[in-house]
Design goal:
By secondary structure, the chain is of the alpha+beta class. It has 16 helices and 15 strands. The strands form 3 sheets. Strands 2-1-5-4-3 form a 5-stranded antiparallel beta sheet, with helices on one face. The chain has a 5-stranded antiparallel beta sheet with strand order 7-6-10-9-8, with helices on both faces. Strands 11-12-13-15-14 form a 5-stranded mixed beta sheet, covered by helices on one side.
Length: about 525
């Protein structure tokens, strides 16, 4: 059961948010509308009040009456008729000292006329606002003296905010209803679209799911890398960063990470299959790629990585032990045949023949050992070649040294690398020679600041279409199909590249593998 929490579902949250936005917008619109109404009212009524005041002030009878104190009582009809005809709230007449002579408000009669910053005392008409009202002041000029004899004031109160709002309420209410209806419809539409994009999950559920996924991704011991449709990294856990020697690469393309071709082929899907092997900076990685599909669309892919370096090392050690066992078994078989031969000759009384047979066997073995130790100064490499000779002899394959072979003693690190490279190359050659009467030739020599290892065989050679692919990928199932030990080739390449050397293969009446290992390791990416 889904728990959307106290905040409510996504639909209610969006509805509340949009209604809040609508109310805020309507309030802003109302404020702007009221301000516009006030400005319009002020401009319109200012012109009207000024026109009323000018009409009253221009009346010839008013000019005479205001100049004669005895006729001041007759001014009221002029003001009242102008107020009634114009719709002004107050039309007042004052004498030159500012005392109000007549007004529709009795409390103002005899009181000073409110002038504020009016310029009417200077003989100029003025329009402005005083105490929330639009006021127009016009000077009254004497009929005969042409001097300032008084003032006419016309005033109309500005409507308040709530008055304007109340008058506009029906229209605002209609707008509010329409906006609310549109807001609800828009909210439901947006909610449906968002839920479709989020697979029906609420925000709290999405956040919880992300937190759980992050915890699981960083907690598992396998490396996990997520890719989108454009081959960009969307997620990578800590184990994947460690296995691939990467930093913060989220958002980067896999082509910009400096990965080798084999790993790139797996990441991009060009290499198909399960439990694919790749090498990355001394690690042997098992990789699987799973496309992510939803609604018949491919959204990306997830690559899982497992570190099998230790397993492969144990496997190599087991292989070496098995090779040693095979060598001892071959030697035991060989010695058993020779002992049987000697025993038979003794029973026949052919003692001279026994002596010649023993001398011949000893001479052959001593000759190979002497040749190897005479040309190979490194004890480990020499021991490897002597041991491989017994296995080759059991298969009926001849193992020989090239005429140019000459290797002095080297340091322990290079010696171990030479044993790895030479042992795997000889094993590959033995696997490629399925019948007797074959031969393997080994050439070991120092050339400048590096050691060159060349292993030739009389086998069928390497198919041209995988000659470069073998070392470009480091491992290929096509190599296994042709009798080549793909992982052995990967280890050879890894060993050579780690020291700054190289390995290649070509055909010349059989396969010819050439590996170069510098005497001093050269740092490479």
């Amino acid at each position: 059961m889904r728990d959307v929490g106290k905040k409510g579902s996504l639909a209610r949250q969006l509805l509340a948010l949009q209604l809040t936005i609508v109310v805020v917008l309507l309030a802003a619109v109302a404020a702007v509308a009221v301000a516009q109404v006030e400005d319009t009212f002020s401009a319109t009524e200012s012109r009207r009040m000024l026109g009323i005041a000018e009409d009253v002030a221009a009346n010839p009878s008013l000019r005479v009456m205001i100049a004669d104190p005895k006729q001041h009582l007759r001014l009221a009809p002029f003001a009242t008729s102008a107020q009634v005809a114009s719709g002004a709230e107050v039309v007042a007449i004052a004498r030159i000292d500012g005392t109000v002579l007549t007004s529709q408000r009795p409390s103002e009669i005899g009181a000073p006329l409110a002038l504020a910053d009016s310029t009417v005392t200077e003989g100029r008409a003025w329009v402005g606002e005083i105490d929330g009202a639009v006021v127009a002041h016009v000077p009254v000029i004497g009929q005969t003296s042409h001097e300032l004899v008084g003032y006419v004031a016309a005033r109309k109160q500005l409507p308040g905010f709530w008055t304007i709002l109340t008058e506009s309420f029906p229209r605002l209410l209609g707008l509010l209803g329409l906006a609310c209806a549109l807001g609800i419809a828009g909210s439901l539409s947006v909610t449906w679209w968002v839920k479709r994009q989020t697979l029906g999950l609420e925000p709290a559920e999405i956040a919880g799911l992300v937190e759980h996924c992050e915890a699981m991704l960083h907690g598992i011991h396998e490396g996990v890398v997520g890719l989108d449709q454009q081959q960009r990294i969307t997620l990578v856990n800590d184990q994947a960063r460690a296995l691939l020697s990467l930093g913060d690469v989220v958002g980067s393309s896999v082509h910009d990470l400096g990965l080798n071709d084999r790993i790139l082929d797996v990441f991009t899907g060009r290499a198909e299959g399960t439990d694919l092997i790749g090498l990355r900076r001394g690690r042997v990685l098992i990789m699987n790629r799973t496309p992510i599909r939803w609604d018949q669309r491919t959204l990306g892919a997830v690559i899982t990585l497992r570190d099998r370096t230790e397993l492969m090392q144990l496997r190599d050690q087991l292989t070496e032990n098995r090779n040693t066992t095979d060598t001892l078994r071959a030697q035991a078989h060989e010695f058993s045949n020779r002992l049987h031969t000697i025993a038979g000759l003794i029973e026949l009384g052919e003692y001279d023949e026994v002596r010649r047979f023993v001398e011949l066997v000893s001479a052959g073995r001593d000759q190979w050992q002497a040749e190897v130790t005479g040309r190979i100064g490194d004890p480990a490499v020499a021991a490897l070649l002597i041991a491989k000779a017994s296995r080759a002899a059991e298969q009926g394959v001849g193992l020989r040294l090239a005429a140019a072979t000459a290797l002095p003693e080297v340091d322990d690190a290079l010696s171990a690398d030479l044993v790895t490279v030479l042992g795997n190359l000889v094993d590959n050659a033995l696997d490629a020679l399925h019948g007797p009467a074959g031969w393997i030739e080994v050439e070991l020599r120092r050339v400048g600041a590096e050691v060159r290892v060349v292993v030739r065989d009389s086998g069928p050679g390497i198919a041209p279409d995988i000659a470069e692919e073998v070392f470009r990928h480091g491992f290929t199932t096509k190599a296994a199909e042709q009798g080549l030990r793909g992982l052995g080739l990967a280890i050879i390449r890894q060993t050579c590249v780690r020291r700054g050397g190289s390995v290649s293969v070509h055909n010349a009446e059989g396969a010819v593998f050439t590996a170069t290992l510098p005497l001093t390791p050269v740092a490479r990416r």
